[in-house]
């Protein structure tokens, strides 16, 4: 019944080993503790003792969350050791130091991203214990799929406030069919997070003419719900600051004449009814009122306008707007709905209704363009209030005659652009039969303009988006690339954009290509470009027979970046003498794919031959033998444009002799006793070159 030796782990990660009386076998024996678990084993000997047990052995464990095997060894007088017994202990992992919680962007309604920070060196753990309150229910779970301290939860409920979120590192070890578990402490600040609620469903709006005679009768059709009067309409500002004085409430925006609400709140006293809105909703009779009274800033708006001269009211009959929706899909936790009403893009009203309200009625007293959106919000609990994403924004237009124009949802299909000329193009598309009477907006943007430096831009008209009601696109620039988007329009309402269509205008090419020879091996090309045109670069190419590869093909010689200059030139060197060349200059655009023009901008030229060199002159039996060389040792003239040699001896009379190009010697019959000036000329179709003259006395 005696206790064996004791092993304990202190908070400072020290392992304490105590020897008990039942472990003492003989006073002559030595008692040693073996501790295994790290990369090497440690041995500690208890102090010698007689009647009193020795002091405990203290081992400072390096690793947190690692299991250690502590073995008691008894060594007798013959130095024979015997293992008495072993105990396994598990140290506690170090705690998490910091926690961050983010929305999981693909699904913020059900997913969160956890990021935890903890000491990594000498800290071992197998799983993470996550504890939190899900509303009023406590949850805890073990999770192991953390990668670099991050993991994604994608099974939370939408709109719920999750509070007191804590993380504990858990270390586990199994030894002799028993499992040891140790949890780290909680040192980080507990977190809270509210998931995003789902948006309402099936949002729809109707515009009805108001019949004053049966208005009350119409209201009574909804006996199970009461109209939302001024006591049931709440602005966001007022709900956020219920104790603030009226002067601290944000001022009303300038939408004071387009929505009308009956005003019978006692808070207003005898102030006149605001002239710009009326709203109603339905809830069960006797239900607790959800929202506070309308803001005082409506009264201020009336006060500011009461002193002005009354203008003649426009001939517009108010209409009734009925906005309906269904609650978000379950299991969303939510506390109400936000209604956002925007008129003419500069006047906005933000209203809040209770969670069991699914209908909102308002009287619109002014024509114009309206945008409506309904979102869900969740506010219960200690977490911050969060609203849903806007599932759908409704747009409509009320004309001055009271006509209701619904939101355009159709986008033009099969948009095509046909290039008519270098400066004009025609856009076409298809639409449904219902939309055939709608007008359109054709939006054109140059994709080329943004690729050029501003100082080098050769076009400027479509550098920013240009909208037109005509399908004919004018003022285009040759060489530019454009993007066209088409919208359907009905009144001031604009539908969704079509798929963008890209088209390019082929450049017009250069003009006045001119060649200036600079001798047998070099030329200068010069050209002009049209004033109207945009391009990326000039490409200078040449075509000739290459004696090295024995092929003839077009090869790029040089590329010149585009500039605003109307004239450009380039020097081409290292040409073969007496050789046929064809030169071409094209303009290449910025588009993708690139367009170029034009292959017809070419000029051909035969380079001049080099001058031959007379090497020997001999006179024998009234015959003059002349020999010469051309362009180095043994040139191959089989592909040269050399035609023949012209040998001239000029004395008292002038003697000429034509020699074929493959022969570089000639014999002239000359009488003795005269002085001649000898020369040899290399001749091509378009030019010639004469050797240095040589004076000969016969």
Automatic annotation (TrEMBL):
Q: Name one GO cellular component term.
A: GABA-ergic synapse
Q: PROSITE patterns, alphabetically?
A: FN3 (PS50853)
Compositional bias segments (type: Low complexity) = 271-281
Domain Fibronectin type-III residue range list: 411-508, 509-611
Instruction: Please provide, alphabetically and separated by semicolons, the GO molecular function terms listed in this UniProt record.
Output: cadherin binding; protein tyrosine phosphatase activity; Wnt-protein binding
Q: Name one Pfam family in it.
A: fn3
Which portions of the chain have biased composition (kind: Polar residues)? 259-270
BP-aspect Gene Ontology terms: axon guidance; negative regulation of canonical Wnt signaling pathway; podocyte differentiation; regulation of glomerular filtration
Question: Where does the record place the region Disordered?
Answer: 259-292
Which superkingdom? Eukaryota
Name the PANTHER family for this protein. Answer: RECEPTOR-TYPE TYROSINE-PROTEIN PHOSPHATASE O
Q: What is this protein called?
A: PTPRO phosphatase
**Which gene is this protein's source?**
Ptpro
